[in-house]
Automatic annotation (TrEMBL):
Swiss-Prot/TrEMBL keywords: Methyltransferase, Transferase
Official protein name in the record: SAM-dependent methyltransferase
Alphabetized Gene3D superfamilies for the sequence: 3.40.50.12710
Pfam families: Methyltransf_28 (PF02636)
Key word Zinc-finger present: no
GO biological process, one term: methylation
Molecular functions (GO terms): protein-arginine omega-N symmetric methyltransferase activity
Length: 388
């Protein structure tokens, strides 16, 4: 879409964006005129009071910039609860730890279903960097499950030690990424950000980071892509404190051999603004979400390096089917009228369909110290671990 056709921000929102632009310009000047794209993305998303996730703009749902799976259907979280309940049965004193809880809808869905299954954890912990989103989460839980609010705790950092179940839906895609370009002659460059006559612009420098160069050796000539060493570090940090339990990560992405396909020569970096996909990462900083697809092979490698066992890797559609989402649909919709039932079925179809979220989104699970010999719900069929 032509950017001139995109919805215009309000004067207040535009002023907010311009304040972040000024801060980014100063950051670039202080660094000598160039910063890595990871540093740009980190500030654009998380700069205190100004970044996309730390500002006050609505992000999720019809009024925001994108819709996540818990916003589409409550059956999403109810399905995830089948995996969570199985882990908590094995770790009866375990907590549930949710990273990046958005509006709180996934927490409500998980807690509600766990209560129905008589599998509630003593503590449901949420780690979210956004003070504004924390308040939305608290309000959502208080309005829907007031009897369970006292079980919910908001954390400022990962626990030093924990056991139980970690759930992270669409977290990895928002971890700052580094950009690498291999030119037609095979030389590797790190693609960063500078300030030009028209504003922020990409600027390449010879790649100096040995670890990043090693990771980027997979790139074909004349190719640009993203790398997320910070995502691997996040997996390692979560694993470092895990004494017993499991971690469930859901996001859009591919294994390495698909991620770095020749047809993906411009990478997967994109923005989300008012339900439109934006390919200019410098469009209205602070008002536009920035994401990249996830290299699940790199995530698997990070989990393996951290001493975790791989429980499975499947498409979101297959995961939800194995967790019984269609049976849940039948159990929860008999009292709906025809129109409501069709709307509910369409929502489930969006989660499952290969043409929608069912194939692009993947689910990977790691564990440590679980005593059960059976596979976790969600991973009992159509496992794709061999593709990693």
């Amino acid at each position: 879409m032509n950017q001139a056709q995109l919805p215009a921000p309000t004067p207040e929102a535009f002023a907010h964006s311009q304040a972040l632009v000024a801060a980014l310009r100063q950051q670039i000047a202080d660094a000598g005129g160039w910063i890595s794209f990871a540093d740009y993305m980190r500030s654009a998303l998380y700069a205190p009071g100004l970044g996309y996730y730390s500002g006050g703009a609505t992000k999720f749902g019809e009024a925001g910039d994108f819709i996540t799976a818990p916003e589409i259907s409550p059956l999403f979280g109810q399905s995830l609860a089948q995996t969570v309940a199985t882990v908590l049965a094995d770790v009866p004193d375990g907590i549930v730890l949710e990273l990046g809880a958005g509006t709180g809808k996934l927490a409500v869905q998980l807690l509600g279903e766990l209560e129905r299954l008589e599998s509630l954890p003593a503590r449901y912990c949420i780690l979210d960097l956004s003070a504004e989103l924390r308040e939305r989460q608290r309000a959502t839980i208080a309005a829907t499950l007031p009897q369970l609010l006292d079980r919910v705790e908001w954390l400022d950092a990962l626990p030093a030690q924990w056991q139980g179940m970690l759930v992270a839906n669409e977290v990895l895609d928002a971890v700052p990424c580094q950009l690498v370009h291999r030119d037609a002659a095979g030389t590797l460059f790190e693609r960063g950000v500078s300030v030009g006559e028209q504003g922020f612009a990409f600027s390449d420098r010879p790649l100096q980071d040995a670890a990043l160069a090693q990771a980027a050796s997979i790139l074909p000539d004349d190719y640009t892509s993203e790398f997320q060493p910070e995502a691997a570090a996040l997996i390692g940090s979560c694993a470092a404190g895990l004494t017993r339990g499991a971690m469930l990560w859901l996001d859009y992405g591919f294994p390495a051999r698909e991620f770095y396909h020749p047809q993906r020569s411009e990478g997967t970096l994109m923005g989300h603004y008012r339900h439109h996909s934006i390919h200019d990462p410098f469009w209205l900083p602070g008002l536009t979400d920035l994401t990249c697809h996830v290299d699940f092979s790199a995530i698997y490698s990070a989990g393996h390096a951290a001493g975790l066992a791989l429980e499975g890797y499947v498409s979101q559609g297959q995961y939800l089917l194995d967790c019984g989402i269609l049976q849940s649909f039948e159990a929860h919709t008999p009292e709906l009228d025809d129109k409501q039932r069709i709307m509910a079925l369409n929502a489930v179809q969006k989660l499952l369909s290969p043409a929608e979220m069912g194939e692009l989104f993947k689910v990977i699970a790691f564990s440590r110290g679980l005593s059960g010999n059976s596979l976790l719900p969600g991973f009992r069929s159509a496992d794709r671990s061999g593709a990693l």
